[in-house]
Amino acid sequence: MAWIAVAGAQERANPLIVGVEELNYLPAYGRDENGEYAGFGRAILDAFAEDHGYDLVYRPLPITRLYSGLLSGSIDLKYPDNPRWAEDRKAGRTIAYSAPAMTYIDGNLVTEARDGHDVELIGTVLGFTPWAWLDRIEDDSLQLIESTDLVPVLRQLFAGRIDAAYANVAVAKHVAAENGLPADQLVFRDDLPYDRGTYHLSTTKHPELIAQFDHWLEDNAERVEAMREDYGVGVEELLEPNGE
To answer: How many domains in the chain?
Structure first.
């Protein structure tokens, strides 16, 4: 399945294929109720493409296959990406990364009933790396359960089968609400290790396009920030209780 966005009048000879994650991770990015790629990720890329006259084809792929597509060149661009992700697979390859398009917080969400309890079993999406917990996972003091999508992770959490869900905090609350789960009972455990990172656009084929995207981000800083606010993907409000 591919989602096509026609953008602008000065098209390239061929559309640009953007590899995206085949999962529901809204409002950051993912499938909407109609199965279309949506969220902040699409909004920002469509806006850039429209301003520069590019056609984009969004190609949803499992996370592991996305890296294969990036490295083989079967996709033109990957979103989101980060220099830290899949470092072993990317070793020795030249990859151009954009400036940050979005900042996120990946952390531990628990139910109100489990707030303050020890965390020994966490769930996350297959292909995601819980950076803040790597030491404990590697020494087997913390067990990790992976699912192909965030919805089953959250269902396991509310069923009491895992102690915490490790995910983008804003996304987890949105996905819970959209799937009939009690999002108001989710608590972000900011007293536990969490990771603050950034989403980037990447490519092995078009470094000149990455440079162009960087200039666009700089020139449209207020517009992009308004998009972040519209989609509810800002992070500062999550850190206010800590005064960070």
So the answer is: 2
